[in-house]
Structure formats: structure tokens, C-alpha cells
Amino acid sequence: MTLQRLGIIGAGGIAKVALSTLARDQAAPLALTSILVPPAFASQATALLDSLGDGLAKSRVVRTDLAAFLDDKPQVVAECASHTAVQEFGPPILDAGCDLIVVSIGSLSDDALFNKLERAAKNGKSRLVLVSGAIGGIDALVAARLSGLESVVYTGRKPPNAWRGTPAEKLVDLAGLKEPVTFFEGTARAAAQEYPFNANVAATLGLAGIGFEATRVRLVADPGVSRNVHEFAVRSGCGDFSIKLEGRPSPDNPKTSLMAGYSVARELLNRVGTVVI
Fold first, then answer.
1. Quick check: 92 and 102 in contact, CB under 8 A?
2. Interhelix angle for 13-25 vs 258-272, to 10°?
3. What are phi and psi of 139, to 5 degrees?
4. Using the 8-state DSSP alphabet, how is residue 248 labeled?
5. For the domain bounded by 5-133+258-272, which CATH number is listed?
6. Do 108 and 207 form a contact (C-beta atoms < 8 A)?
7. Taking the CA of residue 76 as centre, how many other CA atoms within 13 Å lie in the half-sphere pointing to its CB?
8. CB of 173 within 8 A of CB of 205?
């Protein structure tokens, strides 16, 4: 079924990129776009919808409570907000029969939440869709998993400023760094839980590949880079490969890669187009 009624959670940088790209590239406007935000962000969401106008959707509304949001009957909801949004809104949205696109994949390192979302999707006959976010090559990783994975190793390298507000501040002098420092080495689960706003990529690789516990992660503060650098190496039954992606930080939040918004846009455009790739 072609997408006509779209729900979005959040009105920040990821939502802005996703919706502006959809408005630019879709063949015809949607019937409805509804944004769910806390009351304090209602004016920001309204401004975003107003800036995109009829090119995005014929009808555009902002909701501040879930019941009214679901009353808009979205076919698909894209989470562009936070781990908390996935926890609070994910289960009832899936249970209501709406497909849910999740970009805050680090939240799924919580097994209880992941199982709850799976049960809600089965009950609502809906789908939980995990976009690639800031990383590429997820299609190759999932294909390689079918042949048998031997190892997946991920290194996340960001400018020191991108690690502010995280436990890294207590481990290294971010302001005084002169050379790269690896401040975390461990599992994808630990990375996603300890650095929830920086390690969505680690969680994505864990889910797509060899699992949260077996996926090895290194997090690096590097004063020599200006972009978020994601690298992972895979050994598998069908072949070995490595991928390096230097993503531009979001202008709205240096902890977020600009690529994340475009990964949501890609999923939405696949739902309104006739060719999916």
C-alpha cells in the first residue's frame, strides 16, 4: 500500500532532514503528515511543517498526546527523537497496527524493550523497521550473516566535542586532547547502553550481525578529525569486507550524523515510490 498518512515523532534535525527530503523528492504530496512532540516543542514542529507546506502533505498537524496522534490514523510512524520516545511510544504505535521506523536503535540493546516491541508488532500485525542510520553496508552485513559470521569489529571515531555530555568526559580531558584516545573497548551492548546518544551504530551492527555480545566496539575521541568516522570489519563464510564512512555531523546536534536523517528519508521514499532500492 502506498504511503499516504505519515506520522513523525520529533521535530529536530533528523525529522527536518527526513521531511524536507521527502517533500523535495516525492512525486506527489501525502494526504497527511502528523508530528508528535511534547508541548514545549509544538511551535518548533509547527514551524517545520509550515516551512515545507503543501509539497510535503495536503494536511499537516502537530499533536502533543499519543491518543490524538493515533487518531490521525498514520500508516507509518518514523521515530526521529530519542531512546525515551521508542520506550514510551513504540509499543502502543505497533499495537495500533502502524509500522514503526526506528532510528534510535541503541534503545533496542534493552532486551525487555525489544521483546515488548516484537510482541506489539505481532499483535498489531505491523512491522518494526530499523533503518541504517549513520552507517552503510548493513545490507552486506545481513547477507553475510546468512553465510555465517566469524567476527564483526566496529570503531567509532568522533571529534572530542562530540563526546561532551557522555561518560567520556570523566575518562579523558576532551578539551586538552592532542592525539586520538580510545576511551571505550567492549561489546556493542555495553557501548549502546553507556553511550546511548553516540552509539546507535554499534547497536545497529549488533542487531544486523553477530549479536550485541559478540560485536566488538572501540570508541575514540580524535582531535584530528572534523567528522564522525564509522568503520567496521567483517569476516564471514561468504567473504571478508570492511567499510569506512566519514559522516558530516548534524548542524543541529554534533552527536548525530547527518546521514541518519537521510536514512529515514530513504525508507520513506521507498514507501511512496514504485521502485525500492
1. no
2. 40
3. -60, -40
4. P
5. 3.40.50.720
6. yes
7. 23
8. no
Of 61, 57, 70, 68, nearest to 29 by C-alpha is 57
* Residue reference for cell 502502543: 92
Query: Hey, what amino acid is at 144?
Result: A
Indicate where the chain has its CATH 3.40.50.720 domain(s).
Answer: 5-133+258-272
Question: Looking at residue 145, what is its pLDDT?
Answer: 98
Does 3.30.360.10 match the CATH number of domain 138-247?
Answer: yes
Known catalytic residues are 230
Name the maximum alpha-carbon separation found in the chain.
Answer: 54
Instruction: For 268, list phi and psi in degrees, rounded to 5.
Output: -70, -40
Contacting residues for 60 by C-beta, under 8 A, at least 6 apart: 32, 33, 34, 49, 50, 52, 53
3-state secondary structure of 68: helix
Specify the DSSP element, H or E, that contains 239: strand 239-247
Sequence-distant (≥ 6) Cβ neighbours of residue 130 within 8 angstroms: 102, 105, 108, 204, 207, 208
Stated pTM of the model: 0.93
Q: If residue 253 lies in a helix (H) or strand (E), which one and from where to where?
A: strand 253-257
What does the block give as the cell for 35?
508530528
Task: Summarize pLDDT for 91-128 with one digit per residue, the tens.
Answer: 999 999 999 999 999 999 999 999 999 999 999 999 99
Grid cell locating 255: 552527536
Orientation of helix 200-208 relative to helix 138-147, angle to 10°: 30
Listed in order, the ranges of the chain carrying CATH 3.30.360.10 are 138-247
Query: How far is it, in rounded angstroms, from Cα 109 to Cα 253?
Result: 22
- Tens of pLDDT, residue by residue over 139-191, are 999 999 999 999 999 999 999 988 999 999 999 999 999 999 999 999 999 99
Identify which of 47, 22, 29, 36 has the alpha carbon closest to the alpha carbon of residue 98: 36
